[in-house]
Amino acid sequence: MTNFNVGTVHEFSVSRKIDNGFVLMNEHGEVMLHVNDTKETVDIDETVKAFLYHDKQGKIVATTYLPDIDFNTYGWVEVVDMVDNLGVFVDIGIPKHILVSKDDLPLLNRIWPIVHDQLYVCLQTDQKGRLLAKPATENIIEQYAEPAPESLLNNTISGRVYRANKVGSFLVTEEGYQGFIHYTERKEEPRLGEWVNGRIIDVKSVGTLNISLRPVKEEALGEDAEQILAYLSSNKGEMTFTDKSSPDAIRDQFNISKAAFKRALGTLMKQEKIKQEDGKTLLIPKE
């Protein structure tokens, strides 16, 4: 009787050849090695090391392609497909792509990783014994992280998002530094697994980073002002948003803070491009 678990690596002896591959054998039983699951030619009686997984029929089969991750070892893997209501599939280095369940992904599909994004995962099995890839928790990332030096303040930095929630996005850099992007420091929410470029706005005493994806104030002011002008132009030259509007209403419409909104309004009024009358902001027609 065969007694194997998927997601494990074993040594086998090549017992015999069959039409579409080989039969491998050890003291626990026999398992099939499909010809497409071999990295190179194998010979009868040769000893091979193989990884076990379920094929499309649910049968345990072997491959001599060995993944870099296992049930205790994490690694970065690439997303190769996304299926709504199921999750995303990743390439762990074997012929079959492995599922990251939707239960381990953000609630909003638009923040799910897309093809070529990467996730930091290990292997796990579900209650039915099926092999899955499990994203690392915050505790795992903390074990892997390195403290960032204070000298990085105001430098640009790149990293990959490993966690996303309402408060903001969490990333880790190639150097192993942990970073946090507060929701007010981004115009669009990055995807889980996305590679992003930002600016370090604070280095915490514990060595973690606060990062902004927004341009510096001078650049952002121009960008915010352009956004306001575009909104006015598409709304017949007027809007009910003014410097008295609530911060939530401003963020919902323009995805910027009230302070940034007021700075942009002030610039546009100084340039005599807009004016405020009767609780409205009006576009001044060009002469």
Quick structural summary:
Pfam families: CvfB_1st (PF21191), CvfB_2nd (PF21543), S1_2 (PF13509), WHD_CvfB (PF17783). By secondary structure, the protein is of the alpha+beta class.
Largest sheet: 5 strands, mixed, barrel
Beta-strand share of residues: 35-45%
Radius of gyration from the alpha-carbon trace, in angstroms: 27 Å
Give the oligomer, counting copies of the same chain as homo and different chains as hetero: single chain
Order of strands in the sheet with the most strands?
1-2-3-5-4
Give the tally of structural domains.
4
- SS summary, helix count: 4
Structural class: alpha+beta
Mean pLDDT, all residues:
92
Would you identify the CATH architecture of the largest domain?
Orthogonal Bundle
H/E series? EEEEEEEEEEHEEEEEHEHHEE
Shape: elongated
> What is the terminal separation in angstroms?
89 Å
> pLDDT below 50 for ≥5 consecutive residues: which ranges?
none
- Please tally the β strands and state the result: 18
Report the helical percentage.
10-25%
The CATH C-level name of the largest domain is Mainly Alpha
Find the CATH topology of the largest domain.
Arc Repressor Mutant, subunit A
Q: Can you identify the CATH superfamily of the largest domain?
A: Winged helix-like DNA-binding domain superfamily/Winged helix DNA-binding domain
